[in-house]
Specification:
- The protein is an alpha/beta fold.
- The protein has three domains: 2-183, Leucine-rich Repeat Variant (Alpha Horseshoe); 199-341 and 646-654, Rossmann fold, CATH 3.40.50; 425-636, Glycogen Phosphorylase B (Rossmann fold).
- The chain has 26 helices and 14 strands.
- It has helices at 35-45, 49-64, 69-82, 85-95, 102-113, 118-125, 133-143, 148-163, 172-183, 230-242, 293-305, 321-333, 346-354, 363-370, 372-385, 397-403, 409-415, 425-438, 442-449, 473-482, 504-516, 533-545, 561-568, 599-614, 618-635, 638-654; strands spanning 205-210, 248-256, 264-268, 271-276, 311-316, 337-340, 388-391, 416-418, 460-464, 491-495, 525-529, 549-551, 572-576, 591-594.
- The strands form two sheets. It has an eight-stranded mixed sheet, sandwiched between helices. Strands 11-10-9-12-13-14 form a six-stranded parallel sheet, with helices on both faces.
- It is globular, with a radius of gyration of 27 Å.
Amino acid sequence: MRAHREPKLSMSTLDSPHHDRSGDRIRTADGAVDELDLAIEALVAEPRLTAALQRAEDVRIAAALAVDPVRAADRLLALVRDGDDVSALAAIHALGSVDHTSVDELLLAVLTDGDEPFAGHAAWAMAARRSTVEAIDALARLADTDGFSAMLAERTLVEWARLGTIAAGAPARAATEELDGLDGLDVSASWPSGPGVPDDQRDGIVVIQPFLHARIDRDGTSLGAGDAGGIASLLRSLGSSLARVADIAEVVTVTRRHDGEATWEQLEHGHRVVRIPVGEPGPLPWRQAWVHRIEIERHLTALGRSFAGRRVVWHLRMADVGTLAAAAAARRLGQPVVFTAAPDPHIVIDALQDDGRLDRRSFAVDDAGAQYWFRARMVERLTAQADRLVVLPRPTIARELVELLGVDPVDLGRRVTVVPEGVDVGQVDRARARRWLHGTSPAVRRVLDGLPPERRSLPWVLTVGRLHPTKGAQRIVDAVVAEPGLADRVNIVIVGGELASPSADEQSTIELVRLAARDADPSLVSLTGNLPPSAVADLLVEVAEHGGVYVCAADKEEFGLAIVEAMAAGAVVVAPARGGPRSYVDHGRDGLLCDTLSPTAVRAAIVQAMELASVGDAAQRAERSATARRKVRRDLSIDTMASSLGAVYRDLLASPVSSRHAA
C-alpha cells in the first residue's frame, strides 16, 4: 500500500506551531504522556490480532479525546502511510474521530487512492465526518462498483442522508435515493404470505429467523451445498420444533430465492420458509452479497411490517449481510432482537493466526476477501445492542465475550441465556429403525457400490458439512494417508458440497482433498456431495454400527451440530478442542478432542478413536454407544433447544422492550 507511493497530502500539511516534534511522544501541560501515543504504542506492540482489534478501538477513543487534534491527525497519517496493515486500518478509523476539518481531506485522499481494503475502510470512517460535494461524488463512484467497499460507501451516503447532513450541491441520487426506498416502502406490494393465522393464535409470538445463504425446503435436499452448512439444517428443524412451543404462533425462516423456487413454502404447521429475491439468478456467495444490503433490508422491512400489531421477535445469528439488514429493519420497526452471540470471526482470526495463515503484514489482503474487521465490529455492536443474548455452552464463553467482544461483565447476567444447540434425534431414530428392519439403506448402498469389493467391508471415517478449506476435510485425508497401514483399513467418506457445479470454495476443497490423496488407493476417498437429512442419518448409523468414527477436523466449531448428530447415532467422534465440542464430548469415552490445526494431532486422534470404537466386547460397545445417544437426547435435542428459546422470547416480550436495537 501506501509507503511506496507519493502521498497526496504531505506531512507538512498538518504542521502545527503549537507543539515540539523533537520526540516520538508529546507531554501535556501537567507532564503526562499523551494518551494517543500510549494507545498507538500498545497497538503496534500487540502480537495477537484479536487483541489488536481491541487496541484499535483504544486508539480511536484516544484520537477523539486528543487535546491537539492537528497533531493527532499527523500521528495517525504517519501510521496510515508507514504502519503495518493492522496499524494502518486502525489509524484510518481513528482519523474519523479526530475533531479537525483537515481529516476530511485525509480520508478522501485514502478513498480516492483506491487501495483495498484501505479505501473501503476510509469510506466507512467517513460516516462520522461532515459531508462535502467531493466526498459524496467519490463515495457515489465507489458505491456503483461491485465489491464489499461499495456497500461501505453506500452505507455512509445513507447515514449522511438519514442525519440530514448532505452537503449543498451534492447529487440527489447518491445521497437520498436508497434511503427513500426504505422509508417510503410500500408494504402493500406483493409480499409473499403464507396461510392465514387463526384468530385464536394471533396473540402468539412470531419468530423471524433469517439466513439468506441457506437453501431450505421440506425435504432438505439442498442442505450442505454452497455456504449453507449446519446453520441451515438447524433452522429447518428448529423452526418446526419452535412452532410446537407454547405461545409461539408462527416461525418464519427467511432465505434467498433461487431459480424455480416458490416465494414461500410451508415446512410444517406453524413454520414456513420465505424466499426473497436478491441479486441476479445463480449462486451468490456470502462474501459477494454485501452490495445487496439495501435490497435485502427493503424486503425484510416489508416482512416485519406485514406483522404489524403482532408480537414479533427477530432471532439473528450470523455475521453476514442478512443479519446486518435484519438488525436495521428490526430497529426501524421497533421490534426486539435476540442475538446468538459468539466470538466469531474473532476465534477464526485466532485459529488462522495460530496456523500461520494470517498475520499483521498480510492482514489487508485477507480482510479484503473475508471482511474480518467489519464483521468483528458488527458482532461487537450486535452483542452490545441486542435486547437479549443467547450463547452456546462453551467453557470459556463468558471470558471471550468480555475480552473479545467488549461485553460489560455485569451486563452478562441481565441479558445472556445459555442455550445449547440441538439436533433432530427423531431423524437418527428413524434411520436406526430402517437399518434394523430393512438392512443397508439406499444411501449407504450408493457409497458401497462405488468401492471395489475388497474395501466394502471396511469401517468408515466419515465427515459431514460444507466443502470449505476451513472445515478440514483435506486434513482428514492427510492424517489417514500419513498413518502407516491406516489407509488400508478404512474408507474415508466426505459428505457435502455441490459436486456438479461447485463454488470456488468447494472446488478449492476438492482439489485439496485430491492432492492429499494423490499417493493413496484411488478408492480411499468417496465424495458424495450434499445429501438430505434422512440420507445423512443413514450414513451416521452405518458408521456407528460398523466400527467407524466420525471426524470433524475444522479450524474450530462454535458448536458442531454434525458432531452431535453422530453422537446421537452412537458413533465415536473426533472433534476440535477449540470451540463448543468441549462442552459435550467426554474425551476418551465417547470421543476425542484434538488440535485440528495440527496434522499430527488429527492423525493420533483418528487412530485412538478407531481403537475406542472397537475396544471391549459387543455388549460394552453397545453400552458406550447407548450412553452417547442418551446424553444427546437428554441435553442436546432440538426440542430441548426450542423450549429454552421459547422461554427467552416470552420473557423478552413480557418485559418493557429495550430501545437498544442493533444496526
